[in-house]
Here is the input.
Amino acid sequence: MLVGTVAVVTCGCDIADLVTDIFKKPVVTGEWYNKDSNTYIALNDDGNFTMGYGKGNANTGGTYDYDKKEIILHLDYTIKADGTKEDWDQSSLTGGAGKIIMPYELHGDGTLKIKSEGGNLTYEKIGGEAVTTNQKSLVGTWNYEKGSLQLILTEDGHYTMTDGHALSEDEAGHEGHDQGDYTFTDGSLSLSLNGTNRDFQAELVMKDRLKLENESGTFYYVRVSK
Here is the structure.
């Protein structure tokens, strides 16, 4: 019996890979939504998380780690209604010392159950909606989920980028804001200002959540209005 077991392990199989497969942690990464509480949690592959009320709405974020029993959120910042970012209040009654521990279970139907003394919440994985990324679907006002940047894309091909406070579309013509033209072609969003272009690979990962990516990194924006 022992010989047979050794044969299975040593025949065309890396023992390190086998051990990793047996003991690896469950995959909890992804975007999760509970419709009863209207709460949203995004657990990203890079170890960062965002959460808030409403699908794709992120007003709190930080880093996370997890094992087979618990997801631990380390709260770093919040995003206020005006789009500005501030450090997490360590004295807040929510999250002792900036940390939330969530016992969890992954179910065979693909749902995630978060357990607490107040009751259990079952989250469904989202983000797989069929969405099309084109210039029309990009139009709107977008807030950067990790800071105070706001990006406005208009139907006529103009853009406005602000930092530090929210900006309404009626204010978009004021001086002192980064304003120019934009194009979207074959997945590439190009922001043009005074002959200088900033190019991003742009993708709507959800209807109201935009991923921008270039050599500087990957950035997620949440649509606040169309």
Summary: Helices lie at 2-10, 15-23, 135-138.
